[in-house]
């Protein structure tokens, strides 16, 4: 199994530069086709009573942003030759990305941070929830993704079980894979034993994984995962995304939310 079609959102400003660079590198690594999407929302309802000239200026700015985004994409994808596609859409980025993700094996995105109100930024939580494909959120630093060692955040359930398959292209090429479950001290023996079949399943898929059940120390689970990643030199954390809908927004729970908001590692979410 591998990733043969990647998708990334390209913004006109510098913000998406890291995600685009990672997407290009992964497309080279997997011999994959890369789809670049330039999407920016034009919400006419907000301008129902605005002067026509103002509305036109806003539309012109969106058109100019799309051109700039395409130029940035074309400048970055030279090594991929003809294995690229550019798509432009005057739509909210999350909706446009979710639609394009129907033709992608992996979505590459960046954290939006405090800038997420902008019309051309793609919020991670609803993207993970609605894409229907694994979403790789790039690290906040410029560290390239090697994935020579991988930490898998295990919590038995459908999301984590699906993540095993979604992350297989990375894990099968890694030198070291560590499954980590953080639990209450009294549950450690049971959780450790329960992960044995998971490791056997991965072994049959060509992945030699180790499993560690850790007693909860009071630190966040995300902190423990980061600590485990540092211990084995991992730059990729894999996690099943657990979520629920509140007030028409997707809210990611617990460790998923923490990793989505900040991590020194690249994070692959599967929902």
Short description:
Helices cover 38% and strands 23% of the residues. By secondary structure, it is an alpha/beta fold. Strand 4, helix 4 and strand 5 (135-137) form a beta-alpha-beta unit.
Rg, alpha carbons: 20 Å
Mean pLDDT value:
86
CATH level 4 superfamily of the largest domain:
HUPs
Order of strands, main sheet, comes to 3-2-1-4-5-12-9-6-7-8
How much helical structure, as a percent, in the residues? 25-40%
Low-confidence stretches: 245-253
List the quaternary state of the chains: single chain
Q: Any idea how many domains?
A: 2
Number of helices: 10
The largest β sheet comes out as:
10 strands, mixed
Secondary-structure element series: EHEHEHEHEEHHEHHEHEEEHE
What would you note in describing this structure?
With 271 residues, the chain is α/β, with parallel strands linked by helices. It has 2 domains: 5-137, 3-Layer(aba) Sandwich (Rossmann fold); 149-270, 3-Layer(aba) Sandwich (Rossmann fold). The protein is built from 10 helices and 12 strands. It has helices at residues 17-30, 52-76, 93-100, 124-130, 158-166, 168-171, 188-194, 196-204, 221-232, 254-261, and strands at residues 5-9, 33-39, 84-89, 106-109, 135-137, 149-153, 176-183, 209-215, 236-240, 243-246, 249-252, 266-270. The strands form 2 sheets. A 10-stranded mixed β-sheet has the order 3-2-1-4-5-12-9-6-7-8, sandwiched between helices. Strands 10-11 form a two-stranded antiparallel ribbon. A hairpin with a 2-residue loop joins strand 10 and strand 11 (249-252). Helix 3 (93-100) runs parallel beside helix 4 (124-130). The chain is elongated and about 70 Å long.
């Amino acid at each position: 199994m591998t990733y043969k079609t990647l998708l990334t959102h390209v913004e006109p400003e510098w913000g998406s530069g890291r995600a685009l660079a990672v997407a290009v590198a992964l497309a080279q690594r997997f011999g994959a086709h890369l789809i670049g999407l330039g999407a920016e929302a034009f919400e006419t309802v907000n301008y129902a009573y605005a002067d026509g000239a103002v509305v036109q200026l806003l539309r012109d700015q969106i058109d100019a942003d799309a051109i700039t985004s395409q130029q940035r994409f074309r400048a970055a994808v030279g090594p991929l030759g003809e294995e690229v596609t550019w798509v432009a859409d005057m739509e909210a980025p999350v909706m446009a990305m979710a639609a394009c993700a129907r033709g992608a094996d992996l979505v590459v995105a960046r954290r939006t941070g405090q800038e997420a109100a902008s019309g051309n930024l793609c919020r991670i939580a609803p993207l993970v929830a609605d894409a229907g494909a694994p979403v790789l959120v790039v690290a906040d630093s410029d560290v390239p993704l090697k994935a020579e060692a991988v930490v898998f955040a295990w919590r038995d359930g459908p999301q984590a079980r699906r993540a095993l398959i979604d992350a297989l292209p990375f894990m099968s090429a890694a030198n070291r894979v560590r499954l980590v479950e953080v639990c209450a001290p009294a549950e450690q023996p049971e959780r450790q034993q329960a992960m044995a079949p998971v490791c056997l399943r991965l072994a049959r898929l060509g992945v030699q994984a180790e499993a560690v059940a850790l007693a909860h120390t009071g630190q966040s689970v995300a902190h423990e995962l980061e600590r485990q990643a540092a211990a084995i030199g991992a730059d990729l954390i894999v996690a099943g995304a657990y979520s629920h809908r509140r007030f028409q927004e997707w809210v990611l729970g617990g460790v998923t939310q923490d990793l989505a908001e900040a991590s020194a590692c690249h994070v692959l979410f599967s929902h």
